[in-house]
Amino acid sequence: MATACTQGKRTQHGKGRKRRQCPLWSDTVQELRNLAGQRPPQERVFLNRRGQPLTRFGIHAVVERCAVKARANMPSLASKRVSPHSIRHSTATHLLRSGVDINTVRAWLGHVSIDTTNIYAEIDLETKANALAKLAIPSDRKASRRWGKDPALMAFLRSL
After folding, report:
1. Which of 9, 93, 113, 143 is the most exposed place for a label (fewest CB within 10 A)?
2. How do residues 111-132 score in pLDDT, each as one tens digit?
3. What are the residue ranges spanned by the domains of the chain?
4. How far apart are CA 34 and CA 115, in angstroms?
């Protein structure tokens, strides 16, 4: 997995050797520049103890170590499996919750099919509950029930 960071975008060659670009916040770009120091832009940012680029296994180990440390402040993490993929999953869910359209999230994640990205939208019960709350009838508003006085409609409903 090769990565490079330039001009607020990260280019990545991931699964299937696909080339992907993801936008980065300017603060993130600055932090990456600080981490890279004086290294040329085409060199890797994240290195292991031996100065070699981190492998995907190395990244997984770093995430696991950070999750173990975070459990001290957030005990609920003890029952959760935290991995680089769970961070990716959380990011996709947060993007959808904040109103980013699903096709943009699909492209960001590098999914070919929107059906794959729909998994993130389907499981988000909090977003569904918020949408339902937006449609709720205020309790102080009296509902009009004129339909209840329509004998034909009532007969039809009873026949169901």
Report:
1. 143
2. 889 998 988 877 777 777 877 8
3. 1-48
4. 38
